[in-house]
Amino acid sequence: MIWLTAKRFNSNQTMINVSVVLYNSDKQQVKHLLDILAPSAQVGHIYLIDNSEQSDEDYKRIYTKKTEYIFNGSNLGYGAAHNIGIKKTLKSRIGYHLVVNSDIDFDRQILEEMAEYMKKNKDVGMLMPKVLYPDGSLQYLCKLLPTPLDLIGRRFLPKKWMEKRMQRFELRDTGYNQPMNVPYLSGCFMLIRTEALRTVGLFDEQFFMYPEDIDLTRRMHRCFKTMFYPYATIVHNHQHGSYKSGKLLKIHIANMCRYFNKYGWFFDKERRQVNTEVIRQYLA
Q1: What is the pLDDT of residue 12?
Q2: Among 113, 118, 147, 195, which residue has the least CB neighbours within 10 Å?
Q3: Largest CA distance in the chain
């Protein structure tokens, strides 16, 4: 595969703006995240973007000058809400934008480390750290571009039927112990180069939830490296919402249909080429 060479950016900024999307979110989790982000010299502005039905007065009294609370008055969707914060970053000279969930825990020092890595590697457009569950087990969030079977099968077919396929889809045999340029990274923690967003665009707002991270990583992967960085670690208290809620399951299915309508259900030349290259590079 031929990678497009990223242009040399004039800005040496390593500052990071952050967007966090809220929807009836756990206030203690949000406060804990702000306790991590706000003291960091690496962090510029933190945008709390609230998709809840009612504004929360507590968020209006945020204790740090870095934080801006934005109440939407309705649930715009995950990607559309993050785009509000991203657009504000694009108007500035900030070098990077962090998309992060409110249920994330990490050592703030990794922000400096990850930004420094991207500063040294100008062809990297997006960076995701190693992600663990609260019990310390690994979350397999480096994935190939999905086929319908990958997503439908792991949800509705017996686990033993899908185990081998999932092992390859989630690149488990790589060991997750080396930097990897993969086409599908999780939206729970994405450090994105601002100039790369100017090139490939923002989250596609036709996706209300779930495949917006697949779509953005895929588009970014065409022009820049989208890297897994195993030397920084975060903890994600992932809830698997669509496994517990019939409403969220319907939303998940509807949006995955939109994704495959956009790129192709069974005939997707780009998916085949990208996945073949990733398998050759990391699993051969």
Answers
A1: 40
A2: 113
A3: 54
Instruction: Give the SS3 label for residue 151.
Output: helix
Please give the Cα distance from 267 to 25 (Å, whole number).
Answer: 39
Specify the number of domains making up the chain. 1
pLDDT of residue 62: 67
CATH code for position 200: 3.90.550.10
Q: Is the pTM of this model over 0.85?
A: yes
In a domain, 66, yes or no: yes
Stretches where the chain sits below pLDDT 50 are 1-12, 241-243
Orientation angle between helical segments 269-282 and 212-223, nearest 10 degrees: 70
Q: What are phi and psi of 126, to 5 degrees?
A: -145, 145
Q: Is residue 5 part of a domain?
A: no
CA distances from residue 256 to 34, 139, 146, 171, 209 in whole angstroms, order as listed: 32, 21, 10, 21, 9
